[in-house]
Amino acid sequence: MSDEPQPQPQQPNRGWASGAPEAAGKAKKPKRPKRTGWRRLIPTWRIVLSTVVIGLLLVVGGFFLGYHLVQIPAANALATKQSNVYLYADGTVLARDGEVNRESVGLARISKDAQHAVLAAEDRDFYTESAIDPMAMVRAGWNTATGKGKQSGSTITQQYVKNYYLAQEQTVTRKVKEFFISIKLDREKSKDEILEGYLNTSFFGRGAYGIQSAAQAYFGVDAKDLTAAQGAYLASLLNAPSQYDVVAHPENRPAAEARWNYVMNGMVDKGWLSASDRAAAKFPKPKQSTISTNMSGQRGYVVNIVRKYLIENGIVDEEELGRGGYRITTTLQKDKQDAFVEAVDDKLMSQLDKKERKVDTYVRAGGASVDPKTGKVVAMYNGIDYVKQYTPNATRRDFQVGSTFKPFVFTSAVENHSETQSGRTINPNTRYDGTSERPVQGWAGGRYAPENEDQRDYGHVTVREATDKSINAVYAQMAVDVGSDKVMQTAIDLGLSKNTPELTPSPSIALGVATASPLDMAEAYATLANHGRHSTYTLVEKVMKDGKQEVELPERREHQAVSREAADTTTSVLRSVVQNGTASAAQAVGRPAAAKTGTAEEDTAAWFAGYTPDLATVVAVMGQDPKTAAHKSLYGAMGLARINGGGAPAEIWSQYTRNALEGEPVADFDLQLQAGADVTAPPSSDASDEPGDGDESGSSDPDASSTGDEDGSGSDTPGDSGSSTPPGDSGGTESDPPSTGGGTPGSGGPSTEPGPTGGGDSGGDDSSNGGTDPGGGDTDGAGGGDTDTGFPGIPVTPRRQ
């Protein structure tokens, strides 16, 4: 055996898979060398691809997650706040209320030029692009850098989302929400809806939110009337509202004009404006800045009165009205409203000296004017300034109306075919005993003997004379003859509220103890002017919500409140008061007029109520302590002994009515009178107030003085009602002012007269000279001593009225 080792068999390589013998002659793959230096910083293509894929998955996933998680929220509080806009009947702005000066309008109420101007300024491709336009940001930056004007990087949709749904803070969260909401909104709303929303929520400076408020604030027009030049100016303001207001910042006019030119040129580029129109356009001049929400002057009064009217008549819910967005067209006519204010200033306020006369600080004025044919309130006067005197004097019900109530007594007499205690029909020629403190006959409540002004005795006078001179004794008796409950109902039928304070059935009702408002009285007198047909007064012509939805108004109803005969016969009597009685100042209007004066107890208020065929107006001058609000007498106001209904109130009425109807054709009354009322009885001869009063012509009842009612028998004053009326006369049409049987004009002491005190009778009328007494002059200002009436509810101490 050989000692050399024998060769051993080869074992298989454990490092290779079983059954996979290594290929003969194949070389082993060399390892990739490790990257060194800067090469280590470059990612491999595998890493790049993986990153891109993962990134895309995250973006897509994040987009879908964000799209589903971010919902369109409710509008923010600021975006939904609007002012309510109050307009005159002709559409001009009267006032705005609310914290935010915004009035939303539909796109159809925004001029196309204004729409195109905003698009040219903010988003020229709005109608063709998506809600999100990344290129817009690049374009905006480029335009700014090259001096073509500053342009927003957001689309109009994004800006609308920011204005309407989100807050204004610059945060990533807000931007993300804006992104997703814009995409959703673009899918849910049309481009027109989004543009409309944007135009109504954008801020234009001067406190104006929305293009309608901006159009009013800068140019005094509605958005539908904006020109291309005006629209371009407003569009320019969107970038820098305060800086581009060339009135507030004239030094910035060059920048504002540059921006305006950019917008105008953009409109030409897009084909929205012709080159010729562009060349002719000039930079518009905005009006001076005003505070459109200011409640000063008459505006605050009107806003509150109209708000109350809307709520009480169920037209708009109080809560809804508080949210704003209502465009309320009133019935007030601007020229008449201005004329009313001017008349009060000229005839009353300018005559006061509050530094020298304390009583002048008490003077207040109120009034209302109604179109008799429609019942529309065309003008009101409520006070010198809402921010100084808050109480609206046109609608307050706390001053006695005095003798302006007396015509309602006579109307009721004719309406109810009433008779005197002796069975005579009451008409303008019926004679009554006008003796001061004559006890009223036929009243079951007890003794009631009202005093005439200055305790004058007028003897036996016709109703027409008694109205001319406003004789308390006559009208208290007439109220009982008619029935004080019927008188009260007639006053309500004519237009007074059944809730009028102190409107109660008693003889004192005739002397005007009720405390109706000037507006109430104007409504009632308008019914007389309209031949007894009553239209419930209205203050509102039209109401729109959010510029789109018209709110339904109550149906206007008119009915025959009293017979035409009753209303027209009263008008005939009141025409005599203008021609021969205490309302003679109304002759200055230069038109046929009917009127009555009145004074409250202790001269705390003086009234003038009158009408032409076209206009019924009531004016009241009131006395009120500015600190305690207590009613105050007006003795000495304006430097006069007293303020009478025939003085300042009548002068205000005359100037206002003359100016309000200027240019209108003069209309005459077309009257259908009570039988016998077209013939005037001869003047009485036994009036005992003073000699020389024009009664010398005699009386148709020579024995009247010996057969009065003072004996308590309950018989009426002797004398035939209508004794001079031709038999069978059934009335007729009056075209000329009737003459009166009350003596010569101005005689017989036309003045106010006292009634019992203690919250009872006022009444009375006054002279037309604003403080002097042509019928005997003022006395000591007191009304006389105490008189025991013996009947509850009727005051006992007569005072001057």
TrEMBL record:
- Top enzyme class, one word, equals transferase
Compositional bias, Acidic residues, is annotated for 687-698
Keyword DNA-binding in the entry? The reply is no
**Which terms does the record give in the GO molecular function aspect?**
glycosyltransferase activity
Question: Region labeled Disordered — which residues?
Answer: 1-35, 419-453, 678-801
- According to its UniProt record, which reaction does this protein catalyse? Preferential cleavage: (Ac)2-L-Lys-D-Ala-|-D-Ala. Also transpeptidation of peptidyl-alanyl moieties that are N-acyl substituents of D-alanine; [GlcNAc-(1->4)-Mur2Ac(oyl-L-Ala-gamma-D-Glu-L-Lys-D-Ala-D-Ala)](n)-di-trans,octa-cis-undecaprenyl diphosphate + beta-D-GlcNAc-(1->4)-Mur2Ac(oyl-L-Ala-gamma-D-Glu-L-Lys-D-Ala-D-Ala)-di-trans,octa-cis-undecaprenyl diphosphate = [GlcNAc-(1->4)-Mur2Ac(oyl-L-Ala-gamma-D-Glu-L-Lys-D-Ala-D-Ala)](n+1)-di-trans,octa-cis-undecaprenyl diphosphate + di-trans,octa-cis-undecaprenyl diphosphate + H(+)
Q: Where is the composition biased (Pro residues)?
A: 1-10
- Polar residues: which segments have biased composition? 419-433
Outline the extent of the Penicillin-binding protein transpeptidase domain.
370-630
- The residues covered by the Glycosyl transferase family domain are 93-267
Kindly name one Pfam family recorded for this protein. Answer: Transgly
Q: What domain of life does the native source organism fall in? A: Bacteria
The record's EC number reads: 2.4.-.-
Q: Where is the composition biased (Gly residues)?
A: 740-749, 772-787
Membrane-traversing stretches: 47-70
Q: Where is the composition biased (Low complexity)?
A: 714-739
Sorted alphabetically, the keyword list is:
Carboxypeptidase, Glycosyltransferase, Hydrolase, Membrane, Multifunctional enzyme, Protease, Transferase, Transmembrane, Transmembrane helix
Q: Which protein, by its recorded name, is this?
A: Transglycosylase domain-containing protein
